[in-house]
Each structure stands twice: as C-alpha cells, then as structure tokens.
Write a structure and sequence with these properties.
elongated; mainly alpha; two-stranded antiparallel sheet
Length: 469
Amino acid sequence: MIATARLAWRQLWRDRRLPVALLLVLVLAIVAVVLDRVRATEAERDRIAADAVDRETFRAQGARNPHSVAHFSRFAFRPRLETMTLDPGISAHAGTAVWMEAHRQNPPNARAAEDHLDLGRSSELGLAWIWQVVAPLLLVALGFDAIARERERRTLALVVVGGLSLPQFVAGKALALFGVFALALIVSVTLSLLLGGGYPVDDRVARTAIWIGGYLGYLAVWAAITLAVSVRARTSRGALVALLGIWALTILATPRIVATLADEQVPIPSGTELHAAIERDLKQGFDGHGPADQRTKELEARVLAAYKVDTIAKLPVSFAGLKLEEGERIGNLVFDKHHAWLAERYARQASWRRGSTLFGPLAALQHVSTAAAGTDVDQQLEFARQAEHQRRDIVARLNADMIANGAGKDFEYLADPSLWTRIPAFQYTAPAFDRAGLAIDLALLALWVAVAGLLLGWTIRRAARELAP
C-alpha cells in the first residue's frame, strides 16, 4: 500500500496537478493567516483604545446623579480570541461592544463587517473556508481519474493480474490523496498558530486538536467518496462530472437551502420586534406581575409599611432610588424571559442545520470548527451574558448609593465623583471549551467517515468481481 501511495504521489507530481494544488492551498492559507493577523492587530488596537477612552470619560464625569450616570454608563468590549484565526465564524457579523445602560439589555454592536468595504465573498477568506470549500474541490481534481483512468487505459485488470489486489491498489491511492491534504492542513494550522494574534485562551491546544481532527475526518470522507466514484465510473469524464455535482450539491446548494428553511421554520425576530415585545411586558405586566402603574403603587405601600411612615417625604432613604431598583428587578425578569426564548430559537436553527448532515458532513464540521475557534453563536451569547451581568452590577451599585444618600433629594442628589472610580471595569472571561457539547457533531463526522469507507469498500469489491476472470 505504501509503495502504491508513493507511485500515486509521483504520478500526480509528474502531471503537475499535485504541486499546483499544494501551491494553491498553501498560498491561500498564507494569505488568509496574514489578513487575519492584520485584522486581529487592528481589532485589539481599537478595543484597547476604545476601552481606555470609555474608562477615562466615565471616571471624569464629576459630581452627578447616580441614575444619570447609570444611563451614561460604560461599554463592554469583547476581545478577539487567538483561536479565531482558525475560523472567523459569525465574528465578522456579531457585535463586539455592549452599551451597559440602565433599564435596557442592549445587544452587542460595532460589527467588524461594518468597518470594512464590501469586497464580496473574498471577505470570508480564512482557513475554514479554504478547507471546507476549496480542499474538497482540489481533492476531486487530483483523484477523479485515479482509478477511472486505469479502466480507460485497460490497465486496471493488469494491476490485479500483476499480483497487487484491487483493495491494496485503491488503498494506496487513498493514502496518497489523504496524506497530501492532511500534511497541508497541519502546515497551514501551524502557520496560523505562529503568525496569528488575539486574546490568549487557556485551552488553545485542546481547541486546535479537535479542530484539526474534525477537518481530517472531513478530508477522509472526501478522499473516500472521490475514489469510490472513480472506481465505479466508466470514464474519467463521467467521474469528474459526478464528483463536481456532489461537491456543488453538498457544499454550495444544501447549506443555503437548509439555512433558508431554518429561517422560515424558526424565524428570529428583528431587534425592533424583540424590543417591542420587551416593552410590552414591562408596561402591561407579565407572568403574574401587574402593569407598571400597579407595581409602583404596590411598592410604595410596601416601603411605607417597612419604614413605618405615612408619606414618602418621611422616608430615610430615596424612594426614587428604590423605585429604580425595583424597575431593574422587574426588567431583568423580562430580559431573562425573552433572551432565553431567543437562545432557544438559535438552538432550534442549529438543529435544522445539523439535519443537513443527511446530505453531507459539512454542517457537522462547521459546528465543530466554529465551536473550537470560539466563533459560534454560543460564544456570542456568552459574551452578551457576561456584559449583562456587569450591567446589572453597575446599575445596582449606583442605585444603592442613591437609595442610601439621596433621601429627600432623589434626582437632585449628586454623588461624589469617587464613586465612579469604585465601579469595576468589565473583564471578559473566555468560556471553557465545551467538548461534551460537540459530541453529536463529532459522532456525525465519524459516522460519515464510516459510511464513506463502507461505500468505498463496496465499490472496490464490486469492481474486483467484474475484473475477476
């Protein structure tokens, strides 16, 4: 088998397809890594500068009412993880900054895609795109005639007669095809690790290992399918047409069709629609909580009873501050309700996409790829959760100061500027890599490797029977 693989390598090298394919994939990988390094450097520079300006502006406000400061508030900026060089995922289209103001759970804004000219699909060039889309096409270009050409030349039977079994012959071809691309994959990932940049993550090795493993499985599937078609096809031309059709169907058409179906079956509300639903619950009441006016009256009655006074003016604390804090408590319940519903919609869409693995392994690979790179929807939702936790902490601290020190003054109360310096800065923590969460997708990839291997074995056995004297 090794000897057959060496022979296949030499043949591919002599007809120049192998060096051209390797040169193309490595040049694309280098360009992708360099462009990613430039983007990473710019993103970190902008994030650090924006965070510094935001911090100094917040601390230099002077004496102000805490609630005014809660509306002015601060931004939470998401750093760019170093593993994002493997797969940009949704990062170019997901927000990287959250305005943490009172009364609102704002979505992340400042998308990277908004800061660059629209250069079409070239803006998606990255290692993931190269190995998901280009590499299978190059595998087809190198392997479509690996067996079909021998059949056309009527030399396939001579190979078997010469003492080399057909399974050994095809296995050598498969090893040659897979080995070339596996080596190129590892080289390109090594370049990305050496030249890439970004916020360091503790589990980078585990993320990279699973990322590579997923793509090796994907390449193995394509190598097996390519050779299976080449074994069955009567002509090289027929093999090429069939393989190009499979590539177009599984990589170009199916993902778009499934994405459209997912959007139709599980629509995601626009920001305006989500905001309107939240405002409706806040004003009209929800889940046993009455409307806003009723809640205010109930709060007033509870507070007066708790402090044993008959008017708000006699309270030793700021009623306006208590009202604000109660509004935040109710608002947080509403936010949690609607954002949990939104996260469930994203999960259902992911299930729809995962269902497309019936037609090919690409969807499972994409889930593994973006999760390992830290650029999937779950990572974005985690950033939003951390920013929301920080927002609630900031608002609670400001409300507490107003409650304690603003009695009789309410919104006329001005806090000492030292309060702003005691508000903690946002510190993003990269979530631990959820390997267990990838079990289904990794299992689907493994299943595709097994199915492709069985398909190749079946075509080999059938061809061997046809060649038998």
